[in-house]
Amino acid sequence: MAEEKKQGAFDWYFKTNLLARILIGLVLGAILGIILGFFPDSIKPFVDGSKFFGDLFIRLLKMIIVPVVLFSLIAGAASIAPARLGRVGIKIMVYYLLTSAFAIFIGLLFANIFQPGAGFNVVGDAAVKATQVTPPTIAQILLNIVPTNPFESLMKGDVLPIIFFALVFGIALSYIKDSKQAALAKSGALLIDIVNGAAETMYKVVGGIMQYAPIGVFVLIAQVFAQQGPKAIGTLLLVTLTVYIGLIVHVVVTYGGLLSFYKLSFWKFLKGANEAMVTAFVTRSSSATLPVTMRVSEEKLGMPRSITSFTLPLGATINMDGTAIYLGVCAMFIGFATNQPLTFNQQLTVIITATLASIGTAGVPGAGAIMLIMVLESIGLKITEGSAVAAAYAMILGIDALLDMGRTSINVTGDMAGSAIVSKTEKELDMSMWKK
Ligand code: ASP
Question: pTM for this structure?
């Protein structure tokens, strides 16, 4: 859409490189937000007045999640042999689990070095009410993947049941396409063409929506900085820094290392992935970013639809390395801040519970903060009304949006890195896109 020749007032807008525009929106938004932060009275009118423009961006992205996942995955599953699908599934699950566990290790490591919250001596207040989260059982989690009514799942946008149904549909379709009855084979091939066409159309829509991204980004970032900037720059600076250093180190060391191990250029990866990384940063939602993640993985990083259509929606739902780092650092912060630093054994427990919690985290803004409660409970730090733990937790909630931006961006980056590696090992990566 950007390529079309446009005349008139908005010429300059469409002619400027998209990433440059998005980054300009990001920087200007941050500057405006920080300035507004100095004038507390101006924040509410600004947030109310600009809400429409930020919400519009998020709604546009959400509009296409379900069709993108459904069409791409049916087309993808129909084009891959079931045995290979199984192999891809195992590889990506191993990657997702190991990188998440490693992410928490990195989070804990930096939290041990920087000790955020040490010396805070937080005492109880009634800031947070007692909250109970009961983790679902494994059987429940597995059963929920199978939809009782796929149309209901589509309507509600439940990604895992949609993945399950689309996989089943796509695999069945691949058998129909190869049927010995000519008429059946023909209708199977036709249906695959249609589904592929629908997926392409959706990617085109994503491209169009991204033209609006710079404006959406500007507004969303300004809102977050105006509301939370001063706190994160003040007392909670060290937590924010520790989380962000952990995130950056994870990207460079873990993803950079793994990609180079598989002879893929880390730089080219970042260049291809950046649109999705920035979108995740501002929307704070892996799910909302999914259409962008899928588009750039195919169009800029040369991954095949047969793999990404499966690994990326799955990753957006269960693979949350950024959240894992955040959970590790924040558990440590709350321990330090309430004068009960986590013991070695408690930290080991955190590695296990935070890995599980990150899998269970929904790809929506702020979901990680809810899972943090579960991680804290697993090490005996209960959030009861008026307790010191509740007060320390409330401090984290105060800056959660800022932490959420970084962690969501890394959540999405991890999905793309894993999908690239699996595509490479399956010899399905279009290497010409990594050479340019
Ligand atoms: N917002 C994150 C995501 O969508 C989840 C979280 O809150 O940690 O990936």
Answer: 0.83
Closest CA to 238 of 388, 408, 371, 113: 113
Phi/psi class of residue 264: alpha, beta or left (left: φ > 0; alpha: ψ in -120 to 50)? Answer: beta
**Which domain covers residue 312, as residue numbers?**
17-434
Report yes or no on 10 lying in a domain. Answer: no
Question: Which amino acid, one-letter code, is at 62?
Answer: K
Q: Is 7 within a domain? A: no
**In contact, 45 and 226? CB cutoff 8 Å:** no
Cα separation of 419 and 319, whole Å? 12
Distance (angstroms) between ligand 1 centre and the Cα of 84 equals 30
Choose one of 96, 243, 312, 320 to mutate for the ligand 1 pocket test, by most ligand atoms within 8 angstroms of C-beta.
320
Instruction: Indicate which atom in ligand 1 lies nearest the CA of residue 326.
Output: 8
Listed residue (132, 410, 420) closest to 269, CA to CA: 420
Q: What is the pLDDT of residues 38-91, one digit of tens each?
A: 888 888 888 888 889 888 888 888 888 888 888 988 888 888 777 888 899 999
The count of structural domains within the chain is 1
**416 within 8 A of 300, measured Cβ to Cβ:** no
Query: Within a domain: residue 46?
Result: yes
Dihedral class, residue 276 (left if φ above 0, else alpha if ψ from -120 to 50, else beta): alpha
Helices (H) and strands (E) in the chain, counts: 20, 0
H helix intervals, 130-181: 138-145, 150-156, 159-177
The SS3 of residue 355 is helix
Residue 8 lies in a domain: no
The CATH number for 357's domain is: 1.10.3860.10
Q: How far apart are CA 210 and CA 57, in angstroms?
A: 9
Which amino acid does the sequence have at 45? P
d(CA 132, CA 407): 24
Nearest Cα to 213, choosing from 66, 58, 27, 7? 58
